[in-house]
Amino acid sequence: MRFPCANTPPAIAAGLLLFLGVAGAAPDTNPPPSAATPPRRLGLAESVQAALLNNRLLQIERLNPMVARSTLDASRGYYDPILTVGGRRESLTDSGGLDPADFSRDAIYNAQSKVADIGLMGFLPSGLSYTVGGHGANSYGVRNALDFDAYNLNVGVTVQQPLLRNFWIDQARMQIRVNRKALRITELGVEYFTADTLNQTQLAYYELGFAWGNCGVLERLCKARRDLLEGIRRQVQVGLLTALDEHAARAQLAAAEERLVAATSARLLAENLLLNLIGDPFTNQAHQAIEPADALLVLPVAPLRAESVQSGLKRRADLLQLREDVSRADIDLKFRRNQLFPSLNVVAGYTRRGASTYQALDPND
Predict the structure, then answer these.
(1) CB neighbours of 57 closer than 8 A, spacing ≥ 6?
(2) What's the chain's average pLDDT?
(3) Cβ–Cβ contacts within 10 Å for residue 363, how many?
């Protein structure tokens, strides 16, 4: 903006000064109204505790270990034995006759049978599979005019142990180990996200404290600029200063108010960020400012580089996650190498059978 110079006619200069005075009086020089409700004072410890309990993203992250643990338990179910029990009734009738394919099948009989089966099968962590089964039957009726009552029992055990392929590791053992690593990775993910949430909460709290302090400084600056403007106006009225001095003071006040508006906007953004981190439900529609209750203190810290590096290599959750991921890939590689071996299995079995039959003439004949 160019002000009237010395060679400008007095009438034109007076008109320009009057116009600039009216135009410059448009901005409101009064301080912004204060909040309707007093600010809510919040401490750093309270903010951290609220973030650990109510942070939405952290709550979602805590669900991952639960899902991974359920997946691991389901994969361990591979070694749970399977029990099967069955029973049935049978009725067989044959009127006899000649069978050219089997001359022994010429008996005439009418038999009723009760059959029961039971079996147990499963696997062991060494890759051994086992099967234990039993079969029992009771048959009674008439055969070739003779009453009979027969019992039959069969019990057996069969085991099979691989010696090359599926001996060091098989599909089930690989899946269990991979799921165990996945559970560890999700637990480290929760640990990393918790530490990140704590850091972000502390940083947001300090940023909010700085924003409040910055707003306080700028409010005092605006008040000083207003007082200066009022003093310059009184001096202009008595002729000690010119209108140019008043416009310069007004420009300084406008610049300070602009910085105050920007600082207030930054404070509101810092409040919103902190509320998001601590999981505020946002159920109260009326805005209430959040003011840090703890003072911003600079504490002397003397970190040791070597110890910090060693601690980071041992305790950083994201680095431990990468190590677990590499270990999980090694498990898959070990399984695929074992599958290159030929199949060589040792099979053993033991069976016991028993039978008993009673026959007598039909008393009705």
Answers:
(1) 193, 197
(2) 84
(3) 6
